[in-house]
What we know:
Largest sheet: 8 strands, mixed
Strand order of the largest sheet: 2-1-9-10-11-12-14-13
Radius of gyration: 19 Å
Mean pLDDT: 90
Shape: globular
Distance between the termini: 24 Å
CATH superfamily: Metallo-dependent phosphatases
CATH topology: Purple Acid Phosphatase, chain A, domain 2
Order of helices and strands: EEEHHEEEHEHEHEEHEHEEEEHEEEHH
Helix content: 10-25%
CATH class: Alpha Beta
Number of strands: 18
CATH architecture: 4-Layer Sandwich
Low-confidence stretches: 10-19, 26-41
Amino acid sequence: MSIFSSRRQLPALFLTSLTVTVILLTASVNTDAASSKPVIKGVELKTEAKSPEGVVTFACVGDNLIHMPIIRYGIKENGFDFLFEHIRDYMAKADIAVINQETPLVEDPSQYSSYPRFGSPVGIADAVRDAGFSVVTCATNHTLDKGISGLFSTAGAFEKYKDELLLLGIHTSAADAARIPVLNFNGLRIAMLNYTYGTNGIPVPSQYPWCIDGFFNKERVIAQLKAARDAADAVIVFAHWGSEYQTVPDSFQQEWTQIFLENGVDVVVGSHPHVVQPCTLLHSESGHEMLVFYSLGNFVSCQNRPERLLGAMAVFTLQKQENGGVRIAAYNIKPLVTVQAYPLVTTCFLSDYTDELANKQALYAPREKLQSLFDEITAAD
């Protein structure tokens, strides 16, 4: 399966062994963030490049939304690899694979829970790593569902993979919160930021005001965007935003999209609405180009309406230019579908979704119907 469609194409990728360096650009976590001077620190991640020098391909999926039926099946199977069984090989073709970990991870089984306050087993982190993801976004409206201890246990679950996985959006110290990750990969420096619109009304603990990155302070976010832009060849923002179950961007998304465009962001990848929204290329008055995937919908969940079974994979390639700039050389949005064949819940590409799988769905949803819905939504770009 080709990693791109006809939206924008690149030559075939090849494999090169590489060590990734993550530069941590330090900026103030105070409201007066614009006054701080960035400090660069280096961290290394071990991964492999599949692309030529100066080219980096991303594959991103949406909300890893873990409901109780998924937890019960994972306990029975002694792991959660089944969630990624049908996309694992494809993800391996990308240089950097990204997933949004919607729910906090907890160690105590008595804390396992579903909507409205989620708590998922820490074993999810093992499955995410084993599936080949190298970036995990954690700033969501459910991050504080289990309080600050749930945030800390989420970070702790991924800590053992710190040489392989970059965790975005949550922090266990003020020092960590002050760092903007800049991935030094295959000849490109790529800054990555992750923000959530809120935490479902749960206050951010006053003792840990730095624990989660959000759109709470516009000046601070803009200061971070500017610092990232100054330090990196490309800037990617993972935005947890938008109105749930709405297939078009709302005014909040539109406002922040304009802010991102004005501050030189190259790619925006959205999550939270639990449905797919369009992707589009925007251009600033100065000619800067920005690619926006407004929402990738659910990667996996037990939500059972057709539009919530649909998800998307955002695939895009950044390519360094001779003048030192970076362009978006290729991009695509590929439909996914959650298969709720209880007790098994898993996700596959819509192109691999057979009549046999459709007949196993708790909610019957034939491929033609889902494809038509996906086309209708994404045609809005």
